[in-house]
Design goal:
Number of strands: 25
Strand order of the largest sheet: 2-1-10-9-11-12-13-14-15
Strand content: 15-25%
Distance between the termini: 57 Å
Structural class: alpha/beta
Number of helices: 15
Oligomer: single chain
Helix content: 25-40%
């Protein structure tokens, strides 16, 4: 059965496994069976109805990660409304844009932001503001506790919206990606099959749930397959290591894996019960892939996706998981390169979003005339169909008329002794238009800049070799581990002009 409200699929799994553990917090304070999860979602759905939420209404959510946050997510879907999660780091000015643009019926926020949100809500004519804290308490939780634990799931079409997720906004204002029930169901079903997820699995969940990875990839696949979850409200490496012998599956960003490797207590024995480690949201270094395999015997499975499409490609469960590639297109998903390789990747399939919220012109701009979505990612596809990502089109550096792809240089830099990680950017240059700059972190003492440049010159064409190399304690990242190159470009914009004070 497919189509319609995705919660109906979850509901079937919950009913079939009602007595089994659905979510257990890592600290052991909370434990819900699938039956309790369903009843909790029903109470929250009834609370939403009491607050005036109707099918199609947006519900804006900016709360800390908690099990109650999961009940709210399920309840919004069950009620036929549209879930709009916001990064907890967003400022009042940023949130103001999202609220004004989405025009939600309800805002759910942390109690500490209630006054600020109420002011935004009044200005945007939002019906109500309620709160939920990191412990899962607050006015919404109190209200839900008084509600009936029975609720009839609202009928929706597969093309109806389930989520409104805003892109990072690295170029201009953030755009709201309209995600449908059919988008989510097709993606979750494909991943459950590809990754062999079953009710026998237990997932370590330490990702944020305001983003596609932790929300749609991790939660939806676990619910659809009736896999249990060990729940972490935040990344806690030592606690994850302690819990790992009770788990079979982990999804994380590359930072998770580098932090695990930095812990001497993380050993092959720690991972003895694990079936699969999955990485995404940012490129996984080949060195991390190799070191992890040597330490644990497990080859990390890297996959590729984005807000507008969910998951696009995945390395195989069976067969080689090659470092530096993101594997093959998912079933029913097609990927192609525009023009010569490497080139901009375009994708088509049931996973591709409906368009940008109230931005028909931008939607038309990001689709080809034959309705392929233009990802903005630069990559290549080999003869077997394996996809490799070079970088973002907007990160392309044009130096002296030559195209320079940062990822190619970063791979060479990261392999040099003493360098832990690198980010390559282009900044204004008086002669070349853009000059190549590398920003690196060091494992110990960094070799002299001239020595690094010399080493790079043996592997890279002269126009690709960075003209300057800067060392930093750590690269700036967003909440899901992606390096913020826009921030680096601002920081080093005066490298070849007036001095920059860092």
């Amino acid at each position: 059965m497919s189509g319609g409200n995705l919660y109906l699929r979850f509901e079937q799994a919950f009913a079939a496994h009602a007595e089994r553990i659905a979510i257990r917090t890592a600290d052991g304070r909370e434990c819900l069976t699938f039956g309790e999860l369903a009843r909790g979602a029903a109470r929250y759905a009834n609370a939403l109805a009491a607050l005036g939420v109707t099918p199609g209404d947006r519900v804006t959510v900016q709360v800390e990660k908690s099990v109650a946050n999961v009940l709210l997510y399920l309840a919004v879907m069950k009620a036929g409304a549209v879930y709009q999660p916001l990064n907890t780091a967003y400022t009042a000015a940023e949130v103001s844009h999202f609220v004004e643009d989405a025009q939600p019926k309800l805002i759910v926020c942390d109690p500490s932001r209630q006054a600020m949100m109420r002011a935004l809500a009044d200005a945007a004519k939002v019906f109500a503001v309620v709160n939920l804290n990191a412990e899962g308490n607050g006015s919404l939780a109190t209200m839900a506790a008084t509600m009936d634990d029975r609720h009839e799931t609202v009928t929706r079409d597969g093309d109806d919206l389930a989520g409104l997720l805003y892109t990072s906004g690295t170029t201009g204002r953030s755009k709201g990606a309209m995600i449908t029930h059919a988008n989510l169901e097709s993606n979750a079903r494909a991943l459950v099959d590809l990754w062999r997820m079953t009710p026998d699995d237990t997932l370590l969940h330490a990702l944020p749930v305001f983003h596609v990875h932790g929300l749609y990839v991790a939660l939806n696949t676990a619910f659809l397959s009736a896999a249990s979850i060990i729940w972490f409200n935040k990344l806690d490496t030592k606690a994850m290591i302690a819990a790992m012998p009770r788990a079979t599956l982990m999804m994380g960003v590359p930072t998770f894996y580098t932090r695990l490797l930095s812990e001497p207590s993380f050993t092959r024995e720690t991972a003895r019960n694990m079936r699969l480690f999955i990485s995404g949201s940012a490129p996984l270094l080949a060195e991390t892939h190799t070191a992890f395999a040597q330490r644990t015997g497990h080859a990390i499975l890297e996959r590729y996706g984005m807000t507008e499409t969910g998951m696009i490609a995945s390395n195989p469960y069976d067969g080689a998981r090659l470092a530096g590639t993101v594997g093959f297109a998912l079933p029913d998903v097609s990927v192609r390169v525009r023009g010569e390789q490497p080139g901009v990747l375009e994708v088509k399939g049931p996973n591709v979003f409906k368009g940008y919220w109230r931005m028909p012109e931008k939607t038309r701009e990001d689709f080809t005339p034959d309705r392929w979505f233009i990802t903005g990612d630069v990559g290549s596809i080999d003869v077997e169909g394996r996809v490799s990502i070079v970088g973002r089109a907007k990160d392309l550096i044009i130096s002296g008329g030559f195209n320079v792809y940062p990822r190619e240089i970063e791979e060479v830099l990261d392999a040099l002794p003493g360098i832990c990680e690198s980010a390559v950017i282009g900044v204004p240059h008086p002669d070349f238009g853009e000059g190549v700059v590398a920003v690196v972190t060091a494992e110990a003492k960094l070799p002299p800049e001239a020595e690094i440049v010399s080493a790079l010159s043996s592997s890279l064409a002269k126009f690709k070799v960075p003209k300057r190399i800067f060392e930093v304690a750590e690269l700036p990242r967003n909440a899901i581990g992606k390096v913020q190159k826009a921030e680096l470009r601002k920081r080093y914009a005066g490298t070849f002009g007036s001095p920059i004070i860092v």
